[in-house]
Amino acid sequence: MDAAVELFMVFVGSIGGAAIGSFWKKKAEDWATGQSLANLTDIAKRVEAKITGEEWDRQKHWELRRDIMIEMARKASSEVEAMTALQGVYMTEKMNKEKGAAPRLDKRVEVGAKWNDAAAEFEGMQMVIAASCGKELLKALGNFGVFMREMSFEITSEKPEKFDAAAIAEKTNAISVAIRKELKLDAIA
Predict the structure, then answer these.
(1) What is the pLDDT of residues 35-86, one digit of tens each?
(2) pTM to 2 decimals?
C-alpha cells in the first residue's frame, strides 16, 4: 500500500474514531442527564407527597379543633338557655310567694336539674378544650363558667333579679371572639 493511502486511512480512522468516541460520550452524557432528571423527578414527587401529607394533617387538625369549638359554643348556649329557664321559674316563684301562692317545688327541681346537666356538660367540654386549644379561649370559658355558677347560686337563693343578661352576652361574646382567634377566622373575613 502506498504511504499516501495509509496516511489517508489513518486520518479517516482517527476522524471516525473521534466521531464514534464523541458519539458515545454524548450518549453517556444524555444517559446521565436522564438519570439525574429521573432522580430529581422522584425527589420532587416525594417532597410533594410529604408536603401534601403535612397539609392534609394540618387541615384535619384544624377541622377537629373547629368541631370541638363549635360543640363548646353549643354547650355554652345550652347553659344560657338553662339559666334563663332557671331564672324564669324562680322569678315566677318569687312573685307567687308575694301573692301567697304555694311554691312549685317540682318545677324548681326540674329546671335545677336541667341547669346542672347543662353546666356539667359545659364544664366537661372544657377538659377537651384544655387539651386542644389556647389560653385565651380557656380563660373566656373559665370566666363564663364561674360567672354562670355564681349567678345560679344567687338565683336559687331566691334572688332571681341577679340574672344579668348583659353580663351573659358579654361573656358569650368573649367566647366567640376567642374561638374566632383560635381558628384564625379574622384573617379570612
Answers:
(1) 666 666 776 677 677 667 778 788 888 888 889 999 999 999 999 999 999 9
(2) 0.70
Maximum Cα interatomic distance, the chain, rounded to a whole number of Å: 145
- The answer to whether 163 and 83 have CB atoms below 8 angstroms apart is yes
* 3-class DSSP string for the chain: CCHHHHHHHHHHHHHHHHHHHHHHHHHHHHHHHHHHHHHHHHHHHHHHHHHHHHHHHHHHHHHHHHHHHHHHHHHHHHHHHHHHHHHHHHHHHHHHHHCCCCCCHHHHHHHHHHHHHHHHHHHHHHHHHHHHCCHHHHHHHHHHHHHHHHHHHHHHCCCHHHCCHHHHHHHHHHHHHHHHHHCCCCCCC
Q: Does 49 map to a domain?
A: no
- Cβ–Cβ < 8 Å for 125, 56: no
**Per the domain annotation, does 97 fall within a domain?**
yes
Q: How many domains does the chain have?
A: 1
